[in-house]
Amino acid sequence: MARVFAIANQKGGVGKTTTCVNLAASLVATRRRVLLIDLDPQGNATTGSGVDKLNLEHSVYDVLIGECSLVDAMQFSEHGGYQLLPANRDLTAAEVALLNLPAKEKRLREALAPVRENYDYILIDCPPSLSMLTVNALAASDGVIIPMQCEYYALEGLTDLVNSIQRIANALNPELRIEGLLRTMYDPRSSLTNEVSAQLKEHFADRLYDTVIPRNVRLAEAPSHGMPALEYDKQSKGAQAYLALAGELSRRQRRATRATA
Ligand code: ADP
Ligand code: MG
């Protein structure tokens, strides 16, 4: 049964999409079966997976409004090795379209139910807002992975985000937990980075991933070639960092399974 993780942060440009695409590819490289869901109307995870967002027969939008099944809209990412549920600008209409549908917060959860057993991990790339789309992602997930940059205002935004997640969890999905905080675009030479890092460690303890993602130009270049960094430049620091993250995720998973066994 797949573990479902929403990759969320209401701030834009913190590395949500980069994390989705590269973590998905890294989990595939460690022989996991992965489905990546693009839930952002910008469709960056779709493009970054090598799928043309302007020529989609079906997208996640059709799945949410019940126009087609998830399997009909899914496409295989050649370079990533995972299945992708793509998105494009059509998804901006979802906010309004969902209002008139029953169980509007649980549309994605219901769509995922029949395919969960086919995957080890399902990752959901969220838009940079706490919209109905993000609510759908959180209602469908077991955990939230929060990518963040270690900058001055990061902690402030983080408190708001954690509170919002808690509220949504209480209302819709009591099982939902913060799976982990991921430090992205990390620069160990900056004293501010180290200060914020220490505070994160204090507040979030073992929910802060040990793995950090360095600022790496290969990670920024790879999407324009429609591939994860692992395919674009396997030896790059960025690709290797996401491989390490996939390893850390799996180790935590095994520990959690042992603890409940
Ligand atoms: P979000 O999905 O949160 O808006 P993105 O993943 O799209 O953020 O990242 C924002 C920008 O920063 C993109 O241009 C991306 O290529 C770049 N980027 C993300 N992570 C890194 C990194 N570790 N090193 C260098 N550039 C990065
Ligand atoms: Mg994004």
UniProtKB/TrEMBL annotation:
Gene3D superfamilies referenced in this protein's UniProt entry, alphabetically: P-loop containing nucleotide triphosphate hydrolases
InterPro entries according to UniProt: AAA_dom, DNA_Partitioning_ATPase, P-loop_NTPase
SUPFAM superfamilies: P-loop containing nucleoside triphosphate hydrolases
Highest taxon listed in the record's lineage: Bacteria
Domain called AAA: residue spans: 3-178
Protein name in UniProt: ParA family protein
